[in-house]
Amino acid sequence: MRIAVYPGTFDPITKGHLDVLERAQRLFDKVVIAVAVNTGKAPLFSVEERVELAKESVKSLKSPCEVLCFDGLLVDFVQSQGACAIIRGLRAVSDFEFEFQMALMNRKLRQEVETIFLMPRESYTYLSSSIIREVAKLGGDISNFVTPHVESVLKEKFKKN
Question: Which residues have a catalytic role annotated?
C-alpha cells in the first residue's frame, strides 16, 4: 500500500486544501492529513479544533481520509505512518522556494521519503487560510472557499471575539 502524508497547519482547512488532497488520493492508496501542532505560528483554532474541522471537511470527499495531528519532525511522523511521500500544495512560484528548501531538508533527514508537489485548481491558487480568516473576520462571504461547517465555525469564532 502506497501511503502519503499531507501536512499543514490547516487553520482552517479550505477547498484549496481539499482539492490538493483529492489529487493526491488519485496517486496514492491512502493519504493521511497531518495537522501540525506548529508552535511557531499563532493559529486561530486549537490543534483539536483544526483536526475536527478537517475530519468534518473530508466527509464530503469520495475517498475516505484519516486525519491526525503531529508534533515534531514531519519525517518522523511520515515514517511512523509507513508513508513513502509528503504531499505539498504549490499555489504560486512564491511558494516554491520555501517548499523546495523544506523538501531538500526532509530528503537529507530521510532519503527514502519523497516530496510530491501538487497544484490546486486555478480557482484556488490565490486562496490561503490566512486570507480566509481575514475575510471571515471582516464579515465577507467565504462560502465558495470552505465547507459549510468550516464557514459556520469561523462565523461563530469571530462572533465571540
Answer: 17, 41, 91, 129
